[in-house]
Amino acid sequence: MFSAIARVFRTPDLRRKIAFTLGIIVLYRLGAHVPSPFVDFPNVQSCLADTSNTQGVLSLVNLFSGGALLQLSIFALGVMPYITATIIVQLLRVVIPHFETLYKEGQAGQARLTQYTRYLTIALALLQSTTLVTVARSGQLFGTTGVAACEQLLTNDAWWAQLLMIITMTAGTGLIMWFAELVTERGIGNGMSLLIFTSIAATFPAAMWTIWQAQGFEVFLLVLAVGVVIVALVVFVEQSQRRIPVQYAKRMVGRRTYGGTNTYIPIKVNMAGVVPVIFASSLLYIPALISQFNQTPNADGELPGWVVWIQNYMTRGDHPLYWLVYFLLIVGFTYFYVAITFNPVDVADNMKKYGGFIPGIRAGRPTAEYLDYVLTRITLPGSIYLGLVALIPLIALATVSANQNFPFGGTSILIMVGVGLETVKQIDAQLQQRHYEGLLR
Known about the structure:
Helix 5 crosses helix 6 (97-104), helix 9 packs across helix 10 (191-201) and helix 10 crosses helix 18. The chain has 18 helices and five strands. It is mostly helical.
């Protein structure tokens, strides 16, 4: 393994790509700590020092920004606008036929869809930055803590100061997109995925240090051991797939013979990736957001009953009802997203067009029904696996008093393992192009 890593750094072209990628990552992390204009940086840092303030409904977005959101930095929005825009464009392929046509046009169509994603990212960044600045101005960014410093986060709340903050954060999102595209074109690839990986990895030391301080060295070692086991299991499931054999009939074109090959259709156990977890977290965030804007007491000096119910059951990560709703939403969204991204009818038609068939299954509609049968049943364990992994931080929150950014579970471990495996495969492919063995054996 060490000799393979040494071969990576002995290859000049690959060494330059890795150095360029590391340079972009350093700039990205520096920007996450540069405060936006008119932010009271000492007050923000004093609120962040109390870890209980980072367990609110914004914890998921804060995780994807590498902690930049709650610091109100120039990169406060992180990659979330781009992730949201990408998911929306994928969903619009089902609703808008023009988007589906562009998707099937190849590289030119994909370039148009990418351009639409960029425009939508900037629009979402404007919307999210406006919401963030409004929440920070109202003093509700860290919730109702009762601490004066957490309610006075801006040094100037004039309209032009807020407008400058919104423009700065939106420009930061555009700069992050440019960084990601540079890494994809001139680095080792997977630019946006690597930036997400960097954001999540940046929260690991602080999360583990919090556990050490709160629970002691023994619990720290136990969490570390459990984390290694979880990573191994996640790698095993992420690499697991059902291979459906496909044969292609031989065709004679002139004196040449085409086809006659055997291949397979790989159907992963977790075809949806981390998207269902993001969907479920975002949907659970809506009731808490609505309740935050209904904090006016009634005549008896009490909050409305439905607001109290939401605060007691739908915003507390240590409540079993919250766990159950979260788990069921992930299972449902997994089936929904897989149904959108994998169309058995299109796969069956493409196989029939090129003379392919599944042994024992007739081409056309029977093939589509068979693929749907396999996909439906293999998605069930995949959805349960996603739900259980996503619940790990919430269980840790209730058992070892970790915060919701617990490193070994949920979106963090799924993204880090997925991006790590994909990056290793990219480097391995580039090594093999240069006649080396590669990293993977």
